[in-house]
Amino acid sequence: MSFTSLIETANLQLRRVPAWPAYPLAFGYVGWLVWLGATGGLGVEPVVALQRALGEAALYLLIAGLAVTPLRRHAGLNLLKFRRALGLSCFIFVVAHFLAWAVLDLQSLGRVWADIVKRPYITVGMAGFALLIPLALTSNNWSIRHLGARWRQLHRLTYAAALLGAVHYIMLVKGFQMRPLIFLAVILILLLLRLRPGRLAMRFQRG
Ligand code: HEM
After folding, report:
1. Which of 36, 42, 102, 166 is most buried by a 10 A CB count?
2. Nearest 5 degrees, angle CA 10-CA 11-CA 17?
3. Residue nearest to atom 43 of ligand 1 (CA)
4. Within a domain: residue 9?
5. Are the CB atoms for 47 and 105 separated by under 8 Å?
6. Is 45 among the domain residues?
7. Structure confidence by residue, pLDDT tens digits, 20-55
8. Looking at the predicted structure, is the pLDDT value of residue 192 above 90?
């Protein structure tokens, strides 16, 4: 089987796969992690382990969402129908990640702002979270219809949110660690793959 016919078969099969199960799966995974944490299944530091698992899940989904366009453009694989579910599931994990920190870790709303201002990696994570809020609020057909071309412009915030998420990870790890750098490298590669050299050259010539 050639690569092209393999992709065509995959596209045909994927048409039959619904996107909606992503939401119960995301909520289910959050619930399962919380249950594990509460019953001793997340080790001696359950809150930290919970934050980590939720933060990583959010970053994986941000990356998966960023991969949709390059995969379609460069490999012909059409995952467009899953993009909204990927983005909103990512948001579910970021909200849960934030709540695990604010409610279980800090345990005081007063300390939330103090920590955001005091700890640069929290500031950066919070900036990523803030960018995802308008994206989540406009991930519906009504917003797409009403915002028109501005919807696409607004949704470019995903690039910044993913970069902030990766930088937040790099800033919080102690010492030199490859894992967060690999996340950043993958995000940068996916962003580079979105660039269209032809269009860039035209813009450059127009000045
Ligand atoms: C785009 C948004 C965000 C993404 C993608 C993200 C992702 C991550 C990742 C990947 C980790 C490290 C997981 C590991 O160690 O394996 C992490 C840790 C952490 N994040 Fe976030 N994060 C985001 C936003 C936030 C926000 C808004 C807060 C709180 C205001 C926050 C607080 C933390 C804390 C406290 C840790 C450290 C847990 C620990 O190791 O003690 N993050 N995050």
Report:
1. 166
2. 90
3. 55
4. yes
5. yes
6. yes
7. 999 999 999 999 999 999 999 999 999 999 999 999
8. yes
Tell me: the pLDDT tens digits for 63-99? 999 999 999 999 999 999 999 999 999 999 999 999 9
Q: Would residue 52 count as lying in a domain?
A: yes
Q: Give me the domain span that covers residue 11.
A: 3-195
Å from CA of 39 to ligand 1 middle:
22
Please count the structural domains in the chain.
1
Residue nearest to atom 8 of ligand 1 (CA): 55
Cα–Cα distance for residue pair 187/163, rounded to 1 Å: 7
Q: Answer yes or no: is pLDDT of 120 > 80.
A: yes
What is the predicted pLDDT for the residue at 207?
A: 63
User: Is the beta carbon of 101 within 6 A of some atom in ligand 1?
Assistant: yes
Asked if residue 20 belongs to a domain, the reply is: yes
What DSSP state is assigned to residue 105?
A: I
